[in-house]
Amino acid sequence: MSPQTETKASVGFKAGVKDYKLTYYTPEYETKDTDILAAFRVTPQPGV
């Protein structure tokens, strides 16, 4: 049997559910002229 190794992950890469404000929410963010808005349409497919 091979020896076990321990892997350390940073806060942003640990498995599990993270609080939204921990990684995405930035209340003081101000939009810039160079910001890009992307929109995607997702169409459900039967059996998927």
Automatic annotation (TrEMBL):
EC category: lyase
First-listed, main subcellular location of the protein, grouped into a coarse class: plastid
Location relative to the cell: Plastid, Chloroplast
Origin superkingdom: Eukaryota
GO CC annotation: chloroplast
Signal peptide: none
GO biological process, one term: reductive pentose-phosphate cycle
Stored InterPro entries: RuBisCO, RuBisCO_lsu_N_sf
Catalytically driven reaction(s): D-ribulose 1,5-bisphosphate + O2 = 2-phosphoglycolate + (2R)-3-phosphoglycerate + 2 H(+); 2 (2R)-3-phosphoglycerate + 2 H(+) = D-ribulose 1,5-bisphosphate + CO2 + H2O
GO molecular function term, any single one: ribulose-bisphosphate carboxylase activity
Keywords: Calvin cycle, Carbon dioxide fixation, Chloroplast, Lyase, Monooxygenase, Oxidoreductase, Photorespiration, Photosynthesis, Plastid
UniProt-listed Enzyme Commission number(s): 4.1.1.39
The keyword Chloroplast is assigned to this record: yes
Claim: Transmembrane helix is one of the keywords in the record: no
Family, similarity comment: Belongs to the RuBisCO large chain family. Type I subfamily.
PANTHER family: RIBULOSE BISPHOSPHATE CARBOXYLASE, RIBULOSE BISPHOSPHATE CARBOXYLASE LARGE CHAIN
Protein name from the UniProt record: Ribulose bisphosphate carboxylase large chain
Species in which this protein is naturally found: Momordica charantia
Lineage, highest ranks first: Eukaryota, Viridiplantae, Streptophyta, Embryophyta, Tracheophyta
Gene name for this UniProt entry: rbcL
